[in-house]
Design brief:
By secondary structure, this protein is mainly α. The chain is built from 21 helices and no strands. The protein has helices at 4-14, 40-51, 70-80, 86-99, 124-127, 131-147, 151-162, 171-187, 201-204, 208-224, 226-236, 253-262, 266-293, 298-311, 316-329, 337-349, 352-357, 362-378, 386-395, 401-411, 417-445.
Length: 446
């Protein structure tokens, strides 16, 4: 039997002892469990207060006559990162350095209750009065990024925000922003694709986006050259979106051409013409293939192609190259080498008049010669057919004796030359002999 004393002991052991309590005792919270209050305004105030002492000679910037000392700005930013939380408020820091304060939606400086507009003169908008000063500010940002690498990514993100507020900035501030943006995209400090955000309806309709982009491209051209302009357009993706910079009622090739020429960017006009030309060539090539596949009358194909060539300003040699590609892609070739030769010659005979209509110059003939050479080399079943095709074109007067001899001597392309040189040797010897005999007969007549 269990005694009363044992039950009492068991009962005491089973009950949890209460912790002693001290009056006024506060439980300590672990540091990692504490939630930091998000305070971009407080961070802004700290930055602006530090920048206020960055006047030349250490004078406070409240005096409007005092110039900003960019070395002092850089020194402050370098040391302030040890006390201020750049990782958390990096975009706020960059916004202050670019615009002078925190931006409200639309692009104006944010009002802060009784304080009113809180801003600093030590920023790009207020201090970068010309391109040389913009370059000096660029160095401030470069030094800051070297010291705090994580700010680089934040700069691209911040610029995506700022560039949608262009309409809210003054023309002067937009120009300064365009100048430093040009330096940053040219050097890779911000991603080229960042520029695409300027294309939105409220900035496009008043040509704000177009004027800003032209300013950016002007500085890129001045600093890096015309090739850098085209490289930037391609990398940013703007090369295929340039028309979207123009208001809807002005998106015509003529307006675009005039705008870029007036802005001193003729290379963009040439590039756009090339894109348009490439697009037109694709359309013509597609139409030509369909016509040949549908076995339309050759006369109609010639007529339509001549109209397209004239309309799009294409050269005859471009047309003859397209004809060759279209004719050769319209057939499913026999896989047996000996049979494909006969099939190819029979097929080509049907389009002799088409080739003749677009080989009126020696240059066009040479292009055709080399297209045949490349095709026969790239398609191994045609490797031994090259001389037969050239002979067919010679007999039907698509290719002249002079062009064939010129091709053999120094007009050919490198592809498969040693093979085709041996293939053509007898025919070339015959042409040269015929040419020599013709010259002798001519001398005798004289």
């Amino acid at each position: 039997f269990t005694s009363t004393r044992d039950l009492s002991i068991f009962s005491c052991m089973s009950q949890k002892a209460e912790l002693p309590s001290l009056t006024g005792h506060r439980t300590k919270t672990r540091k990692r469990d504490e939630k930091k209050v998000n305070d971009p305004s407080g961070f802004r105030d700290s930055v602006i207060e530090g920048l206020a002492r960055a006047g030349v000679g250490g004078v406070d910037l409240e005096d409007v006559e005092v110039q900003v000392d960019l070395d002092a700005v850089s020194k402050f930013l370098d040391t302030a990162g040890n006390k201020l939380d750049y990782r958390r408020y990096g975009e706020t820091l960059l916004e202050v350095l670019i615009a002078g304060g925190l931006l409200a939606p639309g692009g104006s400086i944010q009002q802060d209750g009784e304080k009113g507009m809180v801003q600093t003169r030590a920023c790009v908008f207020q201090d970068a009065v010309d391109l040389e000063r913009v370059k000096a500010w660029d160095q401030v940002f470069i030094k800051l990024m070297r010291r705090y690498k994580y700010l680089e990514k934040m700069l691209s993100e911040e610029m995506r925000k700022i560039l949608v507020y262009l309409r809210g900035f003054t023309q002067e501030h937009r120009t300064r922003l365009a100048n430093i943006t040009a330096l940053w995209v040219a050097s890779g400090l911000i991603l080229p694709g960042t520029l695409v955000v300027i294309i939105n309806e409220h900035q496009v309709k008043d040509s704000v986006a177009l004027d800003f982009m032209l300013d950016v491209l002007s500085v890129v051209k001045t600093e890096k050259g015309s090739s850098a302009v085209l490289t930037l357009l391609k990398r940013s993706g703007l090369d295929s979106m340039l028309d979207q910079l123009f208001p809807t009622n002005k998106r015509t090739p003529e307006n675009m051409k005039n705008a870029f020429i007036a802005a001193g960017q003729p290379d963009i006009v040439t590039y756009l013409a090339g894109l348009e030309n490439a697009g037109a060539k694709k359309d013509i090539q597609r139409s030509l293939r369909i016509s040949i596949s549908d076995e339309e009358p050759t006369k109609e194909i010639i007529r339509d192609l001549k109209e397209s060539v004239k309309k799009n300003g294409l050269l005859e040699q471009e047309a003859v190259a397209m004809i060759w590609n279209a004719v050769m892609s319209a057939v499913e070739w026999n896989k047996k080498e000996d049979l494909v030769h006969e099939q190819a010659l029979k097929h080509l005979k049907n389009y002799i008049s088409l080739f003749s209509a677009f080989t009126s110059s020696a240059k066009s003939e040479m292009i055709l010669c080399n297209k045949v050479q490349e095709y026969c080399y790239d398609n191994q079943n045609f490797l031994k057919c090259f001389n037969k095709i050239v002979l067919l074109f010679y007999k039907t007067e698509v290719l002249s004796e002079e062009v064939i001899l010129k091709w053999y001597k120094d007009g050919h392309v490198p592809k498969g030359w040693t093979v085709f040189m041996d293939q053509m040797k007898k025919f070339i010897d015959w042409l040269e002999q015929a040419e020599s005999e013709s010259e002798e007969e001519s001398d005798e007549e004289d």
